[in-house]
Write a structure and sequence with these properties.
Structural class: mainly alpha
Radius of gyration: 44 Å
Distance between the termini: 77 Å
Protein name: MARVEL domain-containing protein
Number of helices: 5
Helix content: 40-55%
Shape: elongated
Number of strands: 4
Largest sheet: 2 strands, antiparallel
Strand content: under 5%
Organism: Monosporascus ibericus
Number of domains: 2
Order of helices and strands: HHHEEHHEE
Keywords: Membrane, Transmembrane, Transmembrane helix
Length: 270
């Protein structure tokens, strides 16, 4: 159970990192296109365009490394702490990306603002796509930046979950209690073994009343109150014991010194 839960958490974090990687890759690809077109047509490139290009590029590198390191360092406290810090930093960075591309949040009709200038959506500057097309590219970047913000928040939470899960794994496994397998839920019997342990604990309760004896459990006794009638084994000497009468005589020890009539200390005699 422990290995399965660890694998499930890793798969979930891989999915989250994969979405982040795709979002960063889309932003990097589109802004690389903006920079390439601007360089070919001698268009002045704003600093914020270069900043977004850098954020997207670093995001691609970080998420790619995160996908690889999940194989070996998932839940490690040191690496997870660094990942949480970077995830929070990327949340802020992509908030900036979304704010810079807010021009793509509209309908991309009429006058629009794009990373390569402003103008009518149908207008096409020399050597550049129409402003409407540039606006739609900006819309794509705006959309993926919102998605990236949400998934960087999720990945930070998942890193905390992985650290907690790793600590539980280290605390509960492997040991004789779980058949020397890793995981706090992999012991033999699993969850239901707790009920068996509780049942055994109840049976060993010193305050519990003893069970009533059944007829086959009554011991042979000389005490008439507890003597089982009719359950004597074959050949049991009913007579011949000290103090019993046999044919009108009382059995007494044979080899003894008699102090009083009918009393002795060793052996039997009649």
């Amino acid at each position: 159970m422990g290995a399965k839960s660890t694998f499930a958490l890793k798969c979930l974090q891989w999915f989250i990192r994969g979405i982040q990687f795709c979002c960063c890759a889309v932003g990097l690809a589109l802004y690389s296109y903006f920079l390439a077109v601007a360089a070919q047509n001698n268009v002045t490139i704003p600093k914020w365009v270069r900043a977004i290009e850098g954020i997207a590029g670093v995001g691609v590198l970080y998420t790619f490394l995160g996908l690889l390191l999940l194989c070996w360092l998932a839940g490690h406290p040191f690496t997870s702490f660094i990942a949480i810090v970077l995830d929070i930093a990327f949340v802020g960075a992509f908030i900036y990306v979304a704010q810079a591309n807010r021009g793509g949040a509209g309908s991309c009709q009429g006058r629009v603002d794009t990373p390569l200038g402003s103008g009518d959506a149908a207008a096409s500057p020399s050597g550049l796509p129409t402003y409407g097309r540039l606006c739609k590219m900006e819309t794509a970047v705006f959309s993926v930046s919102i998605v990236a913000i949400l998934f960087f928040v999720l990945s930070a939470l998942m890193e905390a979950v992985l650290v907690r899960h790793r600590r539980k794994e280290a605390r509960f496994g492997p040991s004789p209690a779980n058949n020397y397998t890793s995981g706090y839920g992999s012991g033999k019997g699993g969850f239901f073994s707790r009920f068996r342990r509780n049942k055994n604990a109840d049976s060993d309760n010193p305050n519990a009343l003893p069970e009533h004896a059944t007829p086959d459990q009554i011991r042979q006794s000389y005490n008439t109150e507890a003597t089982a009638v009719g359950n004597e084994p074959e050949g049991y000497p009913k007579y011949g014991e000290s103090g019993h009468q046999y044919d009108g005589q009382t059995a007494y020890p044979e080899n003894s010194v008699t102090h009083d009539a009918g009393r002795s200390t060793n052996g039997y005699r009649y």
